[in-house]
Write a structure and sequence with these properties.
single chain; 314 residues; mainly alpha; 13 helices
Length: 314
C-alpha cells in the first residue's frame, strides 16, 4: 500500500511538471508523498503507520481544501521534516566506503522526491526562516529516535562524545556565522562574498550548500560506515539531516529552478563525499589494523546486524 501511494504521488507530481492533468495535481501529489513518507517513518520507528499516515493525509487534504497560508506553510514544514528524517532512517550499515556512498545517494534521492512534495503544497514562506525551522525540527526528531538506536548518551564513549560535540559545534557555528555575516557583516566583505558566489554560479550553474558539504553528507558516509561496527554510528547519522532536510527545502526558493536544484544537490553530494572519505580514512587510521590485509580483515569482521532497509528498527 505504501509503495502504491508513493508511486501515485510521484506520478501526480511528474504529470504536473509536464503540464498534464488538473491544476491541483501537484498538491495532490504532494499530499500523497508526504502521507506515505509519514507512514513509512512510523514503520521504521516502530510506531503506528496507519494512524500517522491517516493524520498526515487528513492534514494535507485540509490544507488543499481550506487554502490557508499558515496551513500550507505548516504542512510544508512537516513534509520537509518527515522527508529529512526518513531519508536518514532508511539508510543501512555500510562495511566499505563505496557502500557508504550508495547510502548517501539513496538518502539524497529520498529527500529529492520529498522536495517535490514540499513545493507541491505551494507554501508561501520566508525562505531563511522556513529552512532553519525545518532543519531544527528534523534534527530534534532524529535525535529522539537516535537516542534509542544509539544506546543513549552513556553508550557514546569518549571518542563518540567528542565526535558528536564537534558535529554540534560545526552545525551551530555554520548557521550562526552565516546569519551574523548576513545581518551584521561589513558591507564590503558581504559584497565580495556575494560577488564571488555570483561568479561561481555564472560559470558552474549553481553553488553547493555549505551545510550539506561540511556536515550532512560526510556525517551520512561516516555514520553508516561506523554503524557496521558500532551502534553509536547512529549518532553521526543524525547529523545527516543537515543534508537531507536541506535537499527537501531546495525547491521552495522560487529563484531556484529544477536544473539549478539538481546541480546544487550534485555538487554538494560530490564535495561531501570527498570530505566523508577523508573522515573515514582518518578514523580507520586510528582504529583499524595496519596494511591492506589488516583492513580487509577489519571489513570482514564489521558485521554488526541491523534490520533490513524497510523493516522496523525499534
Amino acid at each position: 500500500m505504501l509503495a502504491l501511494g508513493l508511486l501515485a504521488g510521484i506520478a501526480a507530481l511528474v504529470a504536473h511538471r509536464m503540464e498534464l492533468g488538473p491544476a491541483r495535481l501537484d498538491q495532490a501529489g504532494g499530499v500523497l508523498v508526504a502521507s506515505t513518507y509519514t507512514a513509512a517513518l512510523a514503520v521504521r520507528a516502530g510506531g503506528r503507520p496507519v494512524v500517522f499516515g491517516v493524520l498526515a493525509l487528513l492534514l494535507g487534504v485540509a490544507t488543499v481544501v481550506l487554502d490557508l497560508a499558515f496551513l500550507r506553510a505548516g504542512a510544508a514544514v512537516l513534509a520537509a521534516v518527515v522527508t529529512g528524517v526518513l531519508a536518514v532512517m532508511l539508510t543501512v550499515p555500510a562495511v566499505r566506503f563505496r557502500q557508504a556512498v550508495r547510502e548517501a545517494v539513496i538518502a539524497t534521492l529520498v529527500a529529492g522526491v520529498g522536495a517535490f512534495a514540499v513545493v507541491g503544497l505551494r507554501p508561501q514562506v520566508a525562505l531563511e526562516r522556513f529552512e532553519y525551522l525545518s532543519l531544527a525540527l528534523a534534527f530534534g526528531l532524529v535525535t529522539i529516535l537516535v537516542y534509542r538506536l544509539g544506546a543513549g548518551l552513556h553508550g557514546l564513549g569518549r571518542r563518540g562524545a567528542v565526535v558528536v560535540l564537534g558535529g554540534s559545534l560545526v552545525l551551530a557555528g555554520s548557521l550562526a556565522y552565516a546569519e551574523l555575516l548576513r545581518r551584521y557583516g561589513p558591507t564590503d566583505a558581504v559584497d565580495s562574498i556575494f560577488e564571488g558566489a555570483r561568479w561561481v554560479r555564472a560559470r558552474a550553474g549553481a553553488l553547493p550548500r555549505p551545510l550539506e558539504v561540511l556536515v550532512g553528507v560526510p556525517a551520512l558516509l561516516w555514520g553508516t560506515h561506523m554503524r557496521a561496527r558500532r551502534r553509536q554510528g547512529w549518532w553521526l547519522c543524525a547529523f545527516g539531516v543537515a543534508a537531507t532536510a536541506s535537499v527537501a527545502t531546495t525547491l521552495v526558493n522560487p529563484a531556484t529552478g529544477l536544473p539549478e536544484a539538481l546541480l546544487i544537490t550534485g555538487y554538494s553530494l560530490g564535495l561531501g563525499v570527498l570530505l566523508g572519505y577523508a573522515a573515514i580514512r582518518l578514523d580507520l587510521l586510528f582504529t583499524a589494523p595496519r596494511g591492506r590485509r589488516g583492513r580487509r580483515a577489519e571489513e570482514r569482521a564489521a558485521l554488526r546486524p541491523e534490520p533490513s532497509r524497510f523493516a522496523r528498527l525499534l
